[in-house]
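User: Thanks for the earlier help. One more: Transcription factor ERF51. Can you show the sequence and predicted structure together?

Assistant: Of course, both are below.
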Amino acid sequence: MEGSGGGRCCSGKEKIERPYKGIRMRKWGKWVAEIREPNKRSRIWLGSYSTPLAAARAYDTAVYYLRGPSARLNFPELLVGDASVTTGGELHDMSAASIRKKAIEVGARVDALEAAMAASQHHVHASPSEVKPCWFQEKPDLNKRPEPEDPGDDYW
């Protein structure tokens, strides 16, 4: 029997390459992150994300809190500049719930930034007829009196 060397058989499907450590892709396209707690069999669920980058950043946050500065990260250069992770001396005293919360905050922030960047690139490449106005595009001056729409109607 092929593949009986103790490993898992892929049952004819190609194995999807994981672009970063600590993440995997669900069948429906979402990326998830989780990490095993040191010296335990349990795992800490780090959330489900739209992009592999967001899942990897959530993993990096959790592994840094669990293992400290010696942790092997996907993006070591990004974690050094992240003040929310590097401040405070609470690295080894955090509970699994606290680590999960911090990792989900980072992953959600990255997911939101990725979505915003994708949306702005879509608007740049869209034709003017495809771009729909948004409520936040026009910023009215709240210190000015509103002008009537019809010049003949003077409400003030």
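User: Great, one quick takeaway?

Assistant: The domain at 23-125 is CATH 3.30.730.10 (GCC-box Binding Domain).
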